[in-house]
Amino acid sequence: MKKKAVSLLWVLLLLVGVNAAHADTSVWKVVKGDNHLFIGGTIHVLAKSDYPLPAAFENAYRQSAIVVLETDMQKMQTPEFQKLLQSKIVYTDGRSLKTVLKKTTYQALEEHMSSRGLPVANFEQLKPGMVAITLTMFELQRLGLIGTGVDEFFSLKARDDGKTIGQLEPAEKQLAFLSTLGDGREDALITQTLSEIQRLPQLMNSLKAAWRQGDRAKIKELAITPIEKDFPNVYQQLIVQRNMDWIPEIEQMFKTKQVEFILVGAAHLVGKEGILAQLAARGYTIESL
Predict the structure, then answer these.
(1) Is the predicted pLDDT of residue 36 greater than 90, yes or no?
(2) Are 200 and 140 a contacting pair, CB within 8 Å?
(3) pLDDT in tens, 197-250
(4) CA of 88: how far to CAs of 92, 204, 211, in Å?
């Protein structure tokens, strides 16, 4: 598989791993003293055919009183938040896609959008990061590959079951990360996104297979190593810094007897800077569920 730069595919669909090579699951039990919680690695977008989920997810959910997500998914659907989103993802300083992107990049984008029946004029004021997100989501929908992700599935289930739902960061903070996606590397982001869209079914199959098998080495190869190498600033901002912010939040959960089931996307758990490795270094026991 060709080397990949960061694109929406990895930002939205990141899976989970840690330093070992294979665990047959994407759910872990984290133990310290008499207390424990569960951490599950998620794919944010799944197709109907991807259900039912691996049994470990349901097992962890049944044993937990609280479901903790990356952010407040309900708030992100409110009119107020959508208005804030619209204000962050567009240029308001006179710039546009045509002025920000190189001529060759813009032409390639225009050709792709034309092939999908999408008028480029409708996207002209969008920032490239949000263009990449929109195009990838459109392609997933066109291919019938888009549906309820793991996070949304358990968010809805927890509400129906009357379980408490928490979050690791406010929705506004997640928006701040996503609204600056690709800043300074706009041409690289659009070029790589257009390339990956052409191979989207194969990439999705590889990602989901690795997730179901708990193949952390493959997940790291597909989703993390290219970002770390080609977009180190994005890796630090989107993954490493957020991990560091979340660790104290997670450690606070061990001060109560209530059991939490934390659901986060993949890059947050993989490698030496991932949450699982960070917790292990702090003396927590990590067990594959």
Answers:
(1) yes
(2) yes
(3) 988 888 888 888 888 777 777 877 877 787 788 778 888 888 899 999 999 999
(4) 9, 29, 32
How far apart are alpha carbons 75 and 225 in whole angstroms? 32
pTM score of the predicted model: 0.86
Check if the beta carbon of residue 135 is closer than 8 Å to that of residue 193.
Answer: yes
| Residue 42: partners with Cβ closer than 8 Å, 6 or more residues away | 15, 16, 26, 149, 150, 151, 263, 264, 265, 266
Contact 124, 95 (CB under 8 A): no
Q: Find tokens 């190189």 and name the residue.
A: 102
**Omega before residue 119 within 30° of 0, cis:** no
Q: Around Cβ 276, how many Cβ atoms within 10 Å?
A: 24
90 DSSP assignment: B
| Token duo for residue 148 | 């309820």
How far the first Cα of the chain sits from its last, in Å, is: 30
Joined tokens for residue 169: 């960061």
